[in-house]
Amino acid sequence: MLDVRRLRLLCDLDRLGTIAAVALARSYTPSAVSQQLAALEREAGVALLERSGRRVAFTAAGRVLATHAAGVLAALEQTEAALAAARTGPAGPLRIGAFPTAVRTLLPAALVALGRAYPALELMVTELDPADVPAALRERRLDVGLLNDYDAAPGEVHADLDSVPLLDEPVFLAVPAGTPCAGLRAAGDLDWILASAGTLCHEVTLRVCAAQGFTPRVRHRADDFATVLALVGAGQGVSLVPQLAVPAAPATVRLIPLALRRRTRIAYRRGAAAHPAISALIAALT
């Protein structure tokens, strides 16, 4: 019998490429990951990996098992969803990950509606950058998470995750009201307010500015758009903001529409769409 937890590690290795990366993602030691994969080889009765020093590569059998393992994990999600649906309705914990602006604007009404309709549902929200959501879903720290992508940074295709669209919105260049600026190309000489390195917003800003021929001159770093807009309104720099953040803009901010859009999707593990708690959240949000 193949151990499901070990199959997850094999899928992680297929996705991440190295045992060290799998260990980091799962908060294990590399030695522990290697031991679990060796145990999986014994269960399978065939070599799954070829080792050369610290590097590993899939054998033909390992590649076959990794491909089928993804389907096995999705089938388990479907089974759990079917069992949950056999109960009286959405109940138990539902762990939701969302970026700060969504927590402030999109989630509250949905949480209230779900709490009234399904009092046995235990709703738990964690603020999380969209870039961190896929890993949190795979590691089962989340059941549902909100993902973003932009025209300038299309979203990855995650074979082990599914999603449904939630929002498609324009993006603006936010500038202090008294600052003469006609658009992005003219913002190359201005100070910028950027998100933290490693976040999607940070990457998008760098790509958008690079397309205009400049690297933004960073003065402040902030991840919450309400904070960003407050800094812009105080004359501290310019920034990119999506329409969802616009209600937080003070009167001292001017918003310049850009030919750039942001899309938000509701993501979950493949096979989990029919879970009653997940489908109830999707219905409440959409």
TrEMBL record:
Gene Ontology CC terms: protein-DNA complex
Keywords: DNA-binding, Transcription, Transcription regulation
Pfam families, sorted: HTH_1, LysR_substrate
One Gene Ontology MF term: DNA binding
Classification via InterPro entries: LysR_HTH_N, LysR_subst-bd, WH-like_DNA-bd_sf, WH_DNA-bd_sf
Domain of life per record: Bacteria
Segment forming the signal sequence: none
Transmembrane segments: none
Residue ranges of every copy of the HTH lysR-type domain listed in the record: 2-59
Family per record: Belongs to the LysR transcriptional regulatory family.
Identification of the protein by name: LysR family transcriptional regulator
